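User: Hello, beginner here. Can you help me understand these amino acid letters and fold codes? It all follows right here:
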Amino acid sequence: MKCCTMCKKEYDETAARSEYAEAGEWLAGEVWLDAGELCPLCLENRARLVMMYGHEYNT
């Protein structure tokens, strides 16, 4: 189990991830440089927020 640096909850990093979580993982690696530190829920939320408000990434 790992601890998310954003929400501080423990999560299983080997669990299956949604498409939103995969997109969030890409953002974590390429934009915020915190890959491997966030739980799937925080990754999903990040991806959804970027889709709504991060127009520079939605080209």
The beta strands are 2-3, 10-11. The longest strand covers residues 2-3. The helical segments are 19-30, 40-53. The mean pLDDT is 93.
